[in-house]
Amino acid sequence: MPEYKKVYLKKGKDFQIKNRHRWIFSGAIDKIDTHDNGDILKVYSSTKEFLGHAYFNDKTDIAGRMLNFCEEDPLKSIRDNIKNALNMRKQLIDINRTNCFRAINGENDGLPGLIVDIYNDVAVIQISTLGMDKLRPLIISELSSHLNQSISIYERSSMGSRKIEGLDNVEKHILGPKKKNTEVIENGIKLIVDFIDGQKTGFFLDMREMRQLIGNLSKNKKVLNCFSYSGGFSLYALKHGAVSVQSIEISEQANKIAEQNFEINGFKEHKKDILTMNVFDFIKKERLDHDIIILDPPAFAKKRSDVKNALTKYYELNRTTLKKMKSGALLLTCSCSYHVDQDNFETTIKKAGIDANKELIIISKHRMAMDHSINIYHKEFDYLKSFLIYVR
Q1: Alpha carbon of residue 119 to chain centroid
Q2: Phi, psi of 53, rounded to the nearest 5 degrees
Q3: In whole angstroms, how far apart are CA 81 and each of 75, 88, 142, 143?
Q4: Is the pLDDT assigned to residue 318 strictly greater than 90?
Q5: What pLDDT score was predicted for residue 66?
Q6: Are 155 and 170 in contact (CB under 8 A)?
Q7: 8 A C-beta contact, residue 274 and residue 258
Q8: Which of the listed CATH numbers 3.40.50.1970, 3.40.50.2300, 3.30.750.80, 3.40.1190.20 matches domain 74-182?
């Protein structure tokens, strides 16, 4: 094992690490050996108690991210955590029905700064930190050894955090056949995933359970899917017997993929109900006499300072929708804004219901997709909020 340099935390600043939280904030550091940003260091308490290994970057508020909490070589810990993450998904995912899933979920799998999503024959990786960026050769080597040898690996590391870390964005093919998109199945539904130009790594894998929930409720129902992206909720509704589904999405590119998805699933005649327009404009002018309405907007709060404005948008979106909804209809309303917590979101929906003069009954809260499991010591990643509401 290499001889790693050392960092000492201030008195009273080690309790989070002892509780297996992986972040070390810059204000917690007392003394640190000279090192290059992104290097792995040994972490000690103020009393010189060894706490584990972390990589560090003084350009960020989260100065260190723990790779393990033991004496083991951190490179071995990384290899083991990659293997363990992949093995867990093998137990949780039936690839005969769903061959698209999150294989590695950052801190939740003990691999801070690393996301890996599998789309059938393509693995898309995202690296958000300098420390993990320096470990790219190890990551690629381990992934290629554990995944099917015919799989293509594509890196899509293009998030704002990389700039803060002092990194340029990276979008490139790494291994295997070069592809622009691929076809996957999710719960038996076919989907075309554009992992190069699509949202996130290509698809919103984290909403799988909510799509299934809506599907189960859609028989003989009239459904409205707002912010429909490539048509995921719409396809589930149609497959489960919805009589009609309107899909509203402002992105022409996303709607083109949605149209392809409708065709390959045998719903070509419903393509006419895929509309390219602003959701806010649509809900203001249409009747909204649907049985089920889905509001799954993009993140309105990209940073903490956006929260107030985001809550205003959530309020307006939900108030306008609720005001027009008929009694007995169902509303699935969602937020993926990390900086908007569940209490604030629920309070906003409550205010929207009061001002729309509707009674709101929560019949289900967000159902987490198992491949997006959350480490119990790292609740910061529990960012998805959704409420299925009976409106009367």
Answers
A1: 15
A2: -120, 145
A3: 10, 10, 10, 11
A4: yes
A5: 98
A6: yes
A7: yes
A8: 3.30.750.80
